[in-house]
Predict the structure.
Amino acid sequence: MFTDSHSPTSHVAARQHSLRERNLELVARAVFDSPAPLSRADVAAMTGLARATVSTLVDRLVAGGLLTELEPVAAARAGRPAVPLVPAPRTVVGIGLEVNIDYLGATVLDLTGAVVEEKVVRGQFHNSDAVALLTELGRLAASLIESCERDEMRVAGARLALPGLVDSGTGLLRVAPNLGWQGIDPVPLLGLDPKPVVVANNAKLAAVAELAGDVPPSFLYVTANVGIGGAVVVDRQLFLGERGWSGEIGHVVIDPNGPLCGCGARGCLEQYAGKAALMRAAGMPDDARLADLAQALMAGETAPLAAMQVAAAALGSALGDFVNLVDVGTVVLGGAYAILLPWLRDEVAIAINDRVLAAPYAPIEVRGAAAGSYAAMTGGAMEVLRDVLADPARWV
Amino acid sequence: MFTDSHSPTSHVAARQHSLRERNLELVARAVFDSPAPLSRADVAAMTGLARATVSTLVDRLVAGGLLTELEPVAAARAGRPAVPLVPAPRTVVGIGLEVNIDYLGATVLDLTGAVVEEKVVRGQFHNSDAVALLTELGRLAASLIESCERDEMRVAGARLALPGLVDSGTGLLRVAPNLGWQGIDPVPLLGLDPKPVVVANNAKLAAVAELAGDVPPSFLYVTANVGIGGAVVVDRQLFLGERGWSGEIGHVVIDPNGPLCGCGARGCLEQYAGKAALMRAAGMPDDARLADLAQALMAGETAPLAAMQVAAAALGSALGDFVNLVDVGTVVLGGAYAILLPWLRDEVAIAINDRVLAAPYAPIEVRGAAAGSYAAMTGGAMEVLRDVLADPARWV
């Protein structure tokens, strides 16, 4: 009754990770987490490991292609010049894949965080054919994998981002309402076996992409494309919930007497701050794009500005609930919201802070996302590389 | 950018826990988590450790008073009779302390989960004197500690449950609105030094108490006393959020045009389903108690039944948001809601499932809490003992 887990696996001595492997991970982490290159002596000082141990482990990480050595620099004191260590470029790579409503694509990142290659195919995938699209995405990914392997890079795996409810345990997609997909097992359709592919919700992977930038360790992420998605990041880790379905902020109640939502309930956030609702309230034509809305807002047009106020108040109300329930002090606005940030940030911040019980003690900060249009692809590739660094012994 | 933590401590080789200490923990966990007594051979089979290693570690846990041996039972096959191992009674104990609106108290639990002693003082602590009450509670706790130590039990520490915003890092109480307390450091006021005392929100500790019973590993907990409190438990662990302020469901928006709440916002859940709002809507006299409301409901009185419907719809709406945001498939209703369960459960379940996006794939279960009136005290004592089992080497 007092212990943390009743699962039988927790009783099995975790001897897979020997002390040596754990130390390998510590050394790799020290170099990867450092904003500046480290010497072996720096790594020893940071990890508390003996210099000789560090040297052996660094040699293994360099030989295995996870780290690389820069030109030696003269030491401040007498002695051998220090050899700066940095993550190795173009050795081990991770792939981020995505199908969204108006594009599909793939990005390849290396351990330095650089984009090795990226391909995006634009389209209109509302009510689309899952088999055809995933087959097409699989072919695109296969060509990137082939090109990486031709250049002697090792592909660690892939993440597939989908705009819907994905079971974190099985990778099954329950439903992606805007794609019109339901109850499919996406991984076999990609045909990438034996490369491991893990499926996740696109908003959650987009949130991970923010970790490459200057973001606090804990934040809530909310993004609007066609639907509204959300994610919880605590201590640089995604909080997925029990089945991977956390963050569905698009269906938080704004007004119990509000308009009927596609989900069957009334007054959901999507009906006030979703892209379609926003464009409609702003009086934009059916084929208008976000850039057109931004232009109308810059021109000071009345209906678009009023629509933004309604959306901001609703978004702030839902985010206030979100903060009251999960207690995270920073909110990052992504997707369409990042583009519309100048007309959202202050209003949203006021509405959130009005509702959050703890706001008088710690006001909630609202900021725009930094990871750009294909954040979910970037975040997916980053997750693959995070797995590599969590168990570097598998790769060296 | 790809690793899980940027905190410098994570770079330090975690050598405090030697392999031997980790194995000690595995052995202790195996016995504590087992519904039936285990033999040394059972423990070896469950942990994957060698028989001889298990025997040495068990001897240490028995000598240290964490485990105890029952009378040997004849083995099914030839050989020495097996000695069943169980948690030791009345050796190491944890203390749960609480100040709430109408009582303060302390409970002492031993490693078997049995109550060694419990004391509760009833009172009216609305807008009370924090120094006086915490001093009184400290004296009560000190007398329990003295009595335990006289009986040769070791007191591992205490948890203090308070109905307010508690910083998980520092243990400071930001505000407990119904007590009228603000910005205090409660631990020194108890005067229990050198016993370690950790402060936490009462709803969160009440949720922990459910883990002693037959509850799924992940659940949302919501409780009404004077205020409404909540907690998130995932995989038998409290999810506290960034500062320990998660679960403030009492201030989720039910209706943006609803009544003004004490927190300054409009239409908060507390204004529909808080105890005061409920009693008022039910037309109960000012000095009425929950038992009176339950009696009126059993008698089929119209106003109380209508009040319950309003409360259930509001509670279901807020819990629907909670589930959409954190994805946990079971909701446990505690405090006043556990007492009013027959008039809440079905209505709340319908309202939640109407709002949860994933409900068609996995309906949300609603159930009553099992841990009784002083759940936060029980949960607090359990948390102390969970810490003991997380590091048994400190105790043997």
About this structure: Residues 302-326 of chain A form the longest helix (25 residues). Chain A touches chain B through 86 residues (CB under 8 Å). The two ends of chain A are 41 Å apart (CA to CA).
